[in-house]
Amino acid sequence: MLEIFPLVVFLPLVGFLFNGFLKGRIPHRMAGAIGTLAVFIPFLITLGAFNEFRPMERTAPHLVPVFDWIVVGSFKSSFGYQIDQLSLYMTLIITGIGSLIHLYSMGYMKGNTSYNRFFAYLNLFIFCMLNLVLSDNLVLTFLGWEGVGLSSYLLIGFDYDKSSAAEAGMKAFILNRIGDVGFILGTGFLFWFGGSLQYLELQTNLSGLGEFSNYANIVALFFFIAAMGKSAQIPLYVWLPDAMAGPTPVSALIHAATMVTAGIFLIARLNFVFLLAPETSLFIACIGATTALFAATIGTLQNDIKKILAYSTVSQLGFMFLAMGSMSYVAGLFHLMTHAFFKALLFLGAGSVIHALHHEQNIKHMGGLFGKIKITSFTFLLGTLAIAGFFPFSGFFSKDLILEKAYTYGAYGTILWTMGIVAAFFTSFYMFRLVFVVFFGKDNTDSHHKVHESPWTMTFPLVILAIGAAIVGFLQTPHFFLHIDTLERYFAPVLSKGYELASLKGSLAEHKSLVRDVELSLAAFSVGIATIGLILAYFLYQRKQNPIVEEHTGFRKILFHKYYIDEIYDLVLVRPFLFVSKGIAFFFDIKILDRFFLNIGLSFGFIANGLRRLQSGFIGDYALYVVIGTFCILVYLLTRGV
Amino acid sequence: MNPIVNGIPISFILGLAGILFSIGVLGVLIRRNIVIIFMSVELILNSVNLVFVTFSKALSHISGETVVFFVMAIAAAEAAVGLALVIAIFRHKKSTNVDELQSMRW
């Protein structure tokens, strides 16, 4: 399977070209099938490669050079793929969850006039994402990085005749570009220091450079800025909630499972840089914890089912960055996978609810759906239990690992842990609020339409994802429960070189060891917090005893309006920018520049107009000019004195 | 330099040449008949020739007289071509008045 591995990247491209060029000429069913197979076959190949690669025993990555791309002097960039534990892990998530979402889309998008275009975009996205994670050098990764940005733009603005969707697409695109400046700068710096852009060569070259550790913080910061944009961290997170204007499968695929995790992947891939940058890592952890808490509080009062999940995604990504920042990359990657399962499940479940209610997204108009759409309800409930961190579902293990690592992280560990645990409480609260309002509360649905369960193409992925969300947590469990460390051993070859480079002793990356009892009580505490969230949501939204639920005053009003962040950005950045642009376009350009150059042209015309009167056509006039000219020359010569 | 040429002071001859030149220029500027203008041009050339000859004599140097021969040859050629043009224009326009010949302006 390793010999045909390039097909993994190639097949989605073929799917994209096929559906893209023949979009008007093939039936929908065929386009959907081809789009899905173009992702599912790579999944099978990856599985085969995964087995053949024997990831638990192998330590060296397998390189697949395809062709040289740019060769200028000592700069070389090629299309080459690096198969190692990290890229295989990501590829499995992308193709596995990706093909489930493709299958789901076949049902969800049925009847849409742009069905084939949708599948073409989805395949393009998968192609770019695979390039991002499989590339063996930074340039190709950047190609994929920009590619997923483009695909995201295309898919968010899929319903381009709606101005809100088109604007959301642009917002995502522009905010991502801001982050990408960091990527380019970081790449430049790494090439400067390391003399190469290949990850493997960089790793070996940097270990010979003692002085690199002085600059590692700056380089790491640049890459983190890139990750901030892609992975929707403060302050560049505002595009993600708006991105919900895209179709629901897009939200599940891009804004929950794959693209937004590219930032996490980048940090894991460049762990040998980030391990040398303890200050930047602390900064990342702080940003992560703040984002987790911040977005979770916003999620508590939103009424759009997809917006709640979007803020939840921002919050969970914050958890992942908290893990990456506290230099426990395994924990971050673990949460990346469990989150991919349960968040994809939740988004698809929300899509199924929206589908059942004929495109109703406001949870105020839902309620009492439990039992009416059985598969959706049960799977959604399971996803909620997983994300809220209830034992023994996957979210519990990954979130608990992050919180534990944060707790043991350096001097500020306790603060970060507190922020994390409060965010976890809000997570549990807003998710159960959603569940109670949508599935259990009073039925507020418009009863003109019959509520119906979705077709099998939609429920099958839900079931698979639900099983995944329930069990994948067992890949890595705490010491007090089974003590499985599969994931840690699995990632050891990728991460160990970086740890050697950093020589942890005395640095922030050295984690304090944790007593078994403390570990157990930390876990018990987080489950307890989640339970309190559940109970609070039950009392506020199921029993409806408290009038504060509907009123938005004081701080609740600020929360309801998402801290007015969009308004602040509008006021501080967008408006002054527009003001200056308009000034340049309508005043400086037209009134000053245009006038200046136009008048140069006009003045020549004016002079010529005057001069043409001299050309009368009378010989006598011309003779007179000759005489006057001669006279003038003579006078000049005489006064100057020959 | 000898200020007297053949018993006549050089300033007299130069004054005559100046008067002849001025008459020529005036004729070119104010006369309408194209043949008269030609004659005026000849007058200008002759005044110049006179100056050349005078200085040639005064400086006892041959080069001035050599130039005069050139000027005369060119004046003859110019008159031949010019008069041919005048005849052609006259056939075309039935007039020798230069004010009626202004079709070549912008």
TrEMBL record, chain A:
This is NADH-quinone oxidoreductase subunit L. One of its GO terms (cellular component) is endomembrane system. Its main location: membrane. GO terms for molecular function: NADH dehydrogenase (ubiquinone) activity; NADH dehydrogenase activity; quinone binding. It is found in: Endomembrane system; Membrane. Keywords: Membrane, NAD, NADP, Plastoquinone, Quinone, Translocase, Transmembrane, Transmembrane helix. The chain crosses the membrane at residues 6-22, 31-50, 86-106, 118-134, 140-160, 172-195, 215-240, 252-276, 282-301, 308-330, 336-357, 378-397, 417-440, 460-481, 520-541, 622-639. Residues 135-427 form the NADH:quinone oxidoreductase/Mrp antiporter transmembrane domain. InterPro entries: NADH_UbQ_OxRdtase_chlpt_su5_C (IPR002128), NADHpl_OxRdtase_5_subgr (IPR018393), ND/Mrp_TM (IPR001750), NU5C-like (IPR003945), Proton_antipo_N (IPR001516). Pfam families: Proton_antipo_C (PF01010), Proton_antipo_M (PF00361), Proton_antipo_N (PF00662). The keyword Magnesium does not apply. It comes from the Bacteria. It is a multi-pass membrane protein. It comes from Leptospira brenneri. It catalyses: a plastoquinone + NADH + (n+1) H(+)(in) = a plastoquinol + NAD(+) + n H(+)(out); a plastoquinone + NADPH + (n+1) H(+)(in) = a plastoquinol + NADP(+) + n H(+)(out). Residues 443-568 form the NADH:ubiquinone/plastoquinone oxidoreductase chloroplast chain 5 C-terminal domain. Belongs to the complex I subunit 5 family.
UniProtKB/TrEMBL annotation, chain B:
Its main location: membrane. The keyword ATP-binding does not apply. The keyword Membrane applies. It is found in: Cell membrane; Membrane. It is a multi-pass membrane protein. The chain crosses the membrane at residues 6-29, 36-55, 67-90. Belongs to the complex I subunit 4L family. HAMAP family: NDH1_NuoK. This is NADH-quinone oxidoreductase subunit K. The lineage of its organism: Bacteria, Pseudomonadati, Spirochaetota, Spirochaetia, Leptospirales. The gene is nuoK.
